[in-house]
Specification:
By secondary structure, the chain is α+β, with helices and mostly antiparallel strands. It is built from four helices and three strands, in the order ααβααββ. Strands 1-3-2 form a three-stranded antiparallel β-sheet.
């Protein structure tokens, strides 16, 4: 990370809550990731951080850059493709 990026990140620290900072740090460590991947890295459930993602996107601290698809298989054997957004830190 260059000096300008570090300065910009440090400038937003006071406005962010502790859990939001933890989400940003996890996402920084992963580079690009889905909310599920960040939750796994943080060892928490997705519902624990989904509101933080919403707020961080609204504040333009992170952004969705792509979509990943996975196949969800139901108990009855049917399946469907489910999209997940891939996020990164907004530089």
């Amino acid at each position: 990370m260059n000096d300008n990026s570090k300065e910009a990140f440090n400038a937003v620290l006071p406005d962010l809550q502790k859990r939001e900072l933890t989400v940003i740090e996890a996402l920084r460590g992963l580079g690009k990731a889905t909310m599920h991947q960040v939750a796994e890295k943080m060892n928490v459930g997705v519902n624990t951080i989904s509101g933080r993602f919403t707020r961080l996107v609204r504040l333009r601290k992170i952004k969705a850059v792509d979509r990943a698809y996975y196949t969800h298989i139901y108990e009855d054997g049917t399946s469907r493709r489910v999209p997940r957004s891939i996020f990164t830190i907004n530089q």
